[in-house]
Specification:
This protein has 127 residues and is mainly α. The protein has five helices and two strands; from the N terminus they run ββααααα. It has a two-stranded antiparallel sheet with strand order 1-2. It is globular.
């Protein structure tokens, strides 16, 4: 994930770390009853799609925003032991381009991803 650019000059790896940190701080700040390990894992894997979405040369990434949650979930299931709540959070973190998250875990990951993405897009210099 370190070799793929996410937003601006931020790698997908660094973006995922930021989302996990944001998700954990949000849950703690609001005293939410949630499994923190489950939350951190879902946040770290929400963009585990493993390709450069900026490369349109083969035509496969044009609908990245709509599709990468499913790809990330597929990869995560293959490589890690994640539960159904984590799978749902990963698949639906791109709401409103996907179905909405249906769990607190999914809502926190989605919110945290939006906050971090906004900062990366608008507050970092492009590579």
């Amino acid at each position: 994930m370190k070799k793929y650019r996410q937003h601006g000059n931020v790698s997908t790896y660094d973006h995922s770390i930021s989302v996990a940190e944001k998700a954990l701080s949000f849950a703690e700040k609001h005293h939410l009853k949630i499994d923190k390990d489950e939350l951190i894992t879902a946040a770290l894997l929400h963009d585990y799609y493993l390709y450069d979405w900026h490369d349109f040369s083969d035509g496969t990434h044009r609908l990245h925003g709509f599709r990468h949650g499913k790809k990330a979930c597929k990869n995560a299931v293959e490589d890690f032991d994640i539960n159904k709540r984590q799978q749902q959070a990963i698949k639906n973190h791109m709401f409103p381009l996907t179905l909405p998250p249906t769990t607190l875990l999914g809502l926190i990951v989605t919110y945290s991803d939006k906050v971090c993405s906004f900062k990366e897009i608008f507050l970092t210099k492009k590579a």
